Write a sequence for this structure.
C-alpha cells in the first residue's frame, strides 16, 4: 500500500456523520448543545458534497452513531441521560418537601 493519499479507502461508513451525531449526543444537556447541533448539522449536510461520500455512507454512519449512543446510554454511568425530567410531584413527594 502506498503512503500517498488514501482516497476512497475510508468512505464507508461516513465518519463525518457518525462524529456529528456523537458530538450532539456528548453535548446533550450542556450549554454548548445548540451550537454543536448547528455545527454537526452543517458538517453532515456538507458531507455528500465535499466529503466524497454516497448517501448510503451517510445513512450507515448515522446508524452506527445512533447504535453507539444507544448502547452507551444503557451503561450505568449514563443511565437516564435521555429520560424526560419529572416535572410533576406526587402527593408523597409534596408532603416531604
Amino acid at each position: 500500500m502506498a503512503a500517498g493519499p488514501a482516497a476512497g479507502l475510508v468512505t464507508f461508513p461516513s465518519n463525518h456523520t457518525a462524529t456529528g451525531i456523537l458530538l450532539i449526543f456528548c453535548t446533550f444537556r450542556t450549554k454548548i448543545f445548540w451550537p454543536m447541533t448547528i455545527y454537526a448539522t452543517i458538517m453532515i449536510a456538507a458531507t455528500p458534497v465535499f466529503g466524497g461520500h454516497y448517501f448510503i455512507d451517510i445513512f450507515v454512519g448515522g446508524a452506527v452513531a445512533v447504535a453507539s449512543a444507544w448502547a452507551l446510554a444503557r451503561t450505568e454511568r449514563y443511565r437516564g441521560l435521555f429520560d424526560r425530567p419529572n416535572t410533576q410531584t406526587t402527593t408523597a413527594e409534596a408532603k416531604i418537601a
Q: What stands out?
A: The two ends are 68 Å apart (CA to CA).
